[in-house]
Design a protein that fits this description.
There is one protein chain. α1 packs across α4. This protein has a 4-stranded antiparallel beta sheet with strand order 1-2-4-3, covered by helices on one side. It has 162 residues and is an alpha+beta fold.
Length: 162
């Protein structure tokens, strides 16, 4: 019999993040609509954003400006989806911050047999938009480059709403 204490902590984290990642992809997936995240599932992303805000509140994570948001979003995303969401490049200023990722937990060729690259892109966009909205509704996030759209890395810009 395998007991939880017999499974190394790193393996537990990998198991949990893989399941959550697959769940989020399935949540946003809609074979009929193609690339748009269905509105009834949009409410699930909103619920996720409320929990992200609660986590940030509970642990005193900064989110007053774009620079804070990029760090908090990065930390929470790594915890939820694993080290592939580790932000390798951050350029953060109070009004605007840029994230660049070379890896992505949602975009893995071996797992994407049933979901198109465009669908993964819309799911990721829904996740990051809702997460930023939950953390600080005065800011937006725009995905300017995405591995699942053929770019060599993902790039997201967090900025003040205009």
């Amino acid at each position: 019999m395998i007991r939880v204490k017999d499974i190394p902590m790193a393996t537990r984290w990998t198991m949990a993040t893989n399941v959550l990642t697959r769940l989020v992809v399935a949540l946003g997936y809609e074979p009929v609509s193609g690339t748009k995240v269905p509105s009834f599932r949009n409410s699930m992303f909103s619920a996720m954003s409320r929990e992200i805000r609660a986590i940030a509140d509970r642990y005193g994570m900064p989110r007053e400006n774009a620079s804070d948001l990029v760090q908090t979003l990065g930390a929470i995303s790594v915890i939820l989806f694993g080290p592939e969401f580790e932000t390798r490049y951050i350029e953060g200023f109070p009004d605007e911050a840029v994230i660049r990722l070379t890896g992505c937990a949602m975009f893995r060729e071996e797992r994407m047999r049933d979901v198109t690259h465009h669908q993964v892109s819309s799911i990721c966009q829904a996740y990051v938009e809702h997460a930023i909205q939950g953390l600080n509704p005065g800011y937006t996030i725009t995905v300017t480059k995405a591995r699942c759209r053929g770019d060599p890395f993902c790039e997201m810009v967090i900025g003040k709403k205009r």
